[in-house]
């Protein structure tokens, strides 16, 4: 039995379908992210699980219990919001103890649980301070401590890192993952930041216009996007359209003709037929650049854009009418290309992913 199960969940705001989730199962202890662009329904879905919004249809189960119409306080869920929502007039101790007092936890036990939670987030000794006496990162840790102190069944995190600056945000990602692993708490994390979702999650739920577009491990959604939308949203991808040509059955390869550009070899599938229009992707970091033709898969192109990113060079390469983005991490070796240089672009079939229709 799944730890969390969502079935046919639907929420409309007037005519707008904000969330429409057919089926989603989350296992005990899993860290699952809802990822998608602004307005795709991540928060609405999370709020339906939390009980802050009532869905128009469908059900949410936690540990087999139907919680769809249950009041928020009976759901045994922990929340961390974007703005932390700490009580400004309460000390850190009272903020963290708040949920425990509502659960009628006895005094000795309460003190131990609060001090364990503060130790978990590395803020022992901060009990008597008030929220305004803490930095943003520290407030965020307190919000986390407050949400896990009464051992909720599921932890719901709504863009909890988005108010932090870039460096702190990255550091807090590691912290969050460490704390979640230590507690083994089932976690649903809402974010529009693909790096955050990929680095934190066991599985990522990619959402688009209220619906689930793909569910998979970070590697699956990055390497094998199920649709053009996922390919485009997760990492930058070169999306290429072409017409299926000759098929090399023996080697499992197929030649695809790209209009006004070149012919490219891709891994073949039996379902591809000659003359069929297909789309496939190649990630910028999967493209190799050579000075001379090094393999049969190399295609000649011209550098039309070049920028130095520190850890890599980012290029735009024109092959006829086709413009590709390439990421070359051979920095430090002194080798790089300039705009106007001719270059051979290594488009090996292993780097190509054909998109499902
Ligand atoms: P963001 O990343 O910007 O928070 P999101 O993916 O979390 O976006 P939601 O907040 O779930 O998106 O919103 C989904 C859609 O529902 C949006 O088009 C939004 O404008 C709309 N919406 C959300 N809440 C309401 C509301 N209370 N009344 C009317 N429309 C709403």
Commentary on this structure:
There is one protein chain. This protein has 8 helices and 20 strands. A hairpin with a 2-residue loop joins strand 4 and strand 5. It has helices at residues 42-50, 92-102, 107-120, 136-148, 166-183, 194-200, 218-223, 228-233; strands spanning 4-13, 16-26, 31-35, 57-62, 65-66, 77-80, 154-158, 186-191, 203-208, 211-216, 238-248, 253-257, 263-267, 277-282, 288-290, 298-308, 313-319, 322-328, 342-346, 352-354. The relative contact order is 0.11. It is elongated and about 75 Å long. The protein is α+β, with helices and mostly antiparallel strands and 357 residues long. The strands form 4 sheets. A 6-stranded mixed sheet has the order 6-7-8-3-9-10, with helices on both faces. It has a 5-stranded antiparallel sheet with strand order 13-12-11-14-20. The mean pLDDT is 90. Adenosine-5'-triphosphate is lined by residues 13, 16, 18, 36, 38-44, 192.
Summarize the structure.
24% of the residues lie in helices and 35% in strands.
Taking pLDDT < 50 over at least 5 consecutive residues as the criterion, the unreliable ranges are: none
Our count of helices gives 8
In spatial order, strands of the major sheet run: 6-7-8-3-9-10
Q: How far is it from the N-terminal to the C-terminal residue, by CA? A: 32 Å
Share of helical residues: 10-25%
The outline comes out as elongated
| Major sheet | 6 strands, mixed
């Amino acid at each position: 039995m799944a730890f969390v199960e969502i079935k046919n969940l639907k929420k409309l705001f007037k005519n707008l379908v904000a969330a429409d989730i057919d089926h989603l199962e989350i296992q005990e202890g899993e860290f699952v992210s809802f990822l998608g662009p602004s307005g795709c329904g991540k928060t609405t879905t999370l709020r339906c699980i939390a009980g802050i919004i009532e869905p128009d249809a469908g059900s949410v189960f936690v540990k087999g219990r139907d919680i769809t119409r249950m009041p928020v306080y009976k759901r045994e869920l922990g929340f961390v919001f974007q703005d932390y929502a700490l009580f400004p007039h309460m000390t850190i101790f009272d903020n963290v103890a708040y949920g425990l007092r509502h659960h009628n936890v006895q005094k000795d036990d309460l003190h131990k649980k609060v001090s364990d939670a503060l130790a978990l987030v590395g803020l022992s000794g901060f009990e008597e301070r008030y929220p305004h006496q803490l930095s943003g990162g520290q407030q965020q840790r307190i919000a986390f401590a407050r949400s896990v102190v009464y051992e909720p069944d599921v932890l719901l995190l709504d863009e909890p890192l988005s108010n932090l600056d870039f460096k702190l945000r990255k550091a807090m990602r590691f912290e969050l993952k460490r704390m979640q692993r230590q507690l083994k708490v089932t976690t649903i994390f809402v974010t529009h930041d693909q790096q955050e979702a990929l680095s934190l999650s066991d599985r990522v739920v990619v959402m688009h216009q209220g619906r689930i577009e793909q569910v998979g491990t970070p590697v699956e959604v990055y390497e094998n996007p199920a649709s053009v939308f996922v390919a485009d949203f997760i990492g930058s991808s070169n999306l290429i359209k072409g017409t299926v040509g000759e098929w090399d059955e023996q080697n499992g390869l197929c030649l695809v003709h790209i209009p006004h550009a070149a012919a490219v070899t891709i891994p073949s599938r039996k379902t591809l037929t000659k003359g069929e229009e297909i789309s496939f992707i190649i990630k910028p970091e999967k493209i190799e650049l050579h000075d001379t033709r090094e393999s049969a898969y190399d295609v000649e192109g011209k550098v039309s854009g070049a920028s130095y990113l520190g850890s890599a060079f980012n290029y735009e390469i024109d092959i006829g009418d086709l413009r590709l983005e390439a990421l070359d991490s051979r920095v430090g070796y002194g080798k790089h290309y300039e705009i106007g240089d001719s270059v051979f672009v290594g488009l090996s079939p292993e780097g190509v992913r054909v998109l499902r229709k």
